[in-house]
Amino acid sequence: MTKSIIIAGSGGQGIMLIGKVLAQAAMDDAKFVTWLPAYGAEVRGGTAHCMVIISDAEIGSPCVEKADVIIAMNQLSFNKFKNQLNEKGILIVNSSLAKVNSETKALKFPFTEIAINLGNIKVANMVALGALLGKKKIVPVKNIVNIIKQMAPADRPELITVNQAALNKGLEL
Amino acid sequence: MRQKSIKKILISGNEAIAEGAIRAGCTFYAGYPITPQNELIGYMAEHMQDRGGVFIQAESEVAAINMVYGAAATGVRAMTSSSSPGVSLKQEGISYIAGAELPVVIVNIMRGGPGLGNIWPGQSDYFQATRGGGHGDYRCIVLAPANVQECYDMMILAFNLADQYRNPVLILGDAMLGQMMEPLNTSTKFVIKNVDKSWALTGCKDRKPNIVKSFYMVKGDLEKFNLKLQKKYEALQAKEERWEEFLVKDAKLVLVAYGSMARIAKAAVKTLRLKGKKVGLIRPITLWPFPKQAFKKPKDKYLVVEMSYGQLIEDVKLSLSVNAQVGFIGRAGGGFPSEEEIIVKANKLYNG
Q: B323 in helix, strand or coil?
């Protein structure tokens, strides 16, 4: 089985990071995995996206043409990628920063608002990752928790708490 | 199929090349930043010094290749890296290094060209890499990894071959391979083959001075030297051809592709096989010396797949002793043939 995922947003939203977290969680689950970043020459404010492929078999192109999952964290990303979903795919949109037109089927959650309520706007990405895993068990949640623990700097344990809280909020959506 | 549970790390091709180089005994690195290989120079900046090496961010690509030229002349394992426009700038230095017969490793993470081009993947530097690139009759050994594991594993081969043949070795990757992250197993032990480097400039106290140069003013000397180079290249062609075959034995149509393009071609082969089509893949690993032996027993039909407009195909045709049908699909400038496009082209050729 192969799952292809596009995660898109603006520079600074932690797009690349949750792609890496997802990829690493899949690697820890003994899957084949590729993570491919793509960004324009611009960084802050521009769109950034990454493509993750998780598979039980060797992966050919790391480039995703039609995705099983798309997470769009802002309006530009939604506009850019909404048509790259395959028939049975799911589109998850950050409704805090993107309006979804009525003809597009999407799962809408206010990730940024939820993150602000958790006290750290930066964890909107982790809420989104939680939401994805709540809908599709692509990787074990415990792997994500372990990676959050490994990634947080030793002198900032509060980052583990808030990211875990964000992940759990997402899972509940 | 599940991968065995060996401890792996998630790392980009660029970083895997850098880590592989350090473990292969590279103690001198000089480079100048350029996308899409910045993770490589960044990794070197972070780790070289702590691990006993020298890292220099040079003022230009030209400076970097000449620093590497100097370092290699002293006998240390030296490397530089860049991407297409930067590698063009290095060509004068590479020619001098080939002329001075120095072991140096040069990495080219190719991007779209010509000119400043763009930062997306490309394979359009194939001719430059395999035909010498700079002035004079010389060749670089050219290795083409196709995944992150190979980016790492190939570095020990690169440095060992460079030392053994006293010849520059080029690692030819592309933006896709350099930027992509994949799981990497670093448990394989690298065996550094120590060769005699009595030619090196190490200070000539108590011995006759060594001279490292690419300059021959006495009439006839340069021709003699060129003949010596040609002998070396013949030996390389005879001994060092490397390639991978995938389902070639019973194939009626064989795809030919290298680097990240080969991954996509392989996926196309698997899909075509599921539909009962006898299709295989030859993936050149050494682009020079080109694996001519892989084409010794020619198949009826070939399809060359490139991220360029007809470069690899020339070597495929030169390697075929008979008139086989050779089809082509290629894109460049940042685009690459998709699995679907390859399948359409392959089906046409197969049924035609």
A: coil
Residue A103, pLDDT above cutoff 60 = yes
Cβ-count burial B103-120 (b if 16+ within 10 Å, e if not): bbbbbbbbbbbeeebbbb
Whether residues A57 and B338 touch (CB distance < 8 A) is answered with no
Q: Which CATH superfamily is domain B9-239 in?
A: Thiamin diphosphate (ThDP)-binding fold, Pyr/PP domains (3.40.50.970)
Please list, in sequence order, all residues whose beta carbon lies within 8 angstroms of the beta carbon of residue B94, skipping any fewer than 6 positions away: B65, B104, B106, B133, B134, B140, B168
Q: Write the CATH number of the domain with boundaries B244-351.
A: 3.40.50.920
Domain boundaries, chain B: 9-239, 244-351
Does CATH number 3.40.920.10 belong to domain A2-172?
A: yes
Domains B9-239 and B244-351 share a fold: yes
A59 at the B interface (CB within 8 A)? Answer: yes
A43 and chain B in contact, CB less than 8 A: no
Mean pLDDT, residues A108-130 taken together: 97
CA distance A172 to A162: 15
Rounded to the nearest angstrom, the minimum Cα separation between A64 and chain B is 10
Instruction: Read off the pLDDT of each residue in B309-313 and give the average, rounded to a whole number.
Output: 98
pLDDT in tens, A13-53: 999 999 999 999 999 999 999 999 986 555 566 788 999 99
Whether the per-residue pLDDT at B1 is higher than 50: the answer is: no
> Any residues with CB less than 8 A from the CB of A120 and at least 6 apart, and which?
A162, A166
Rounded to the nearest integer, the mean pLDDT of chain A is 94
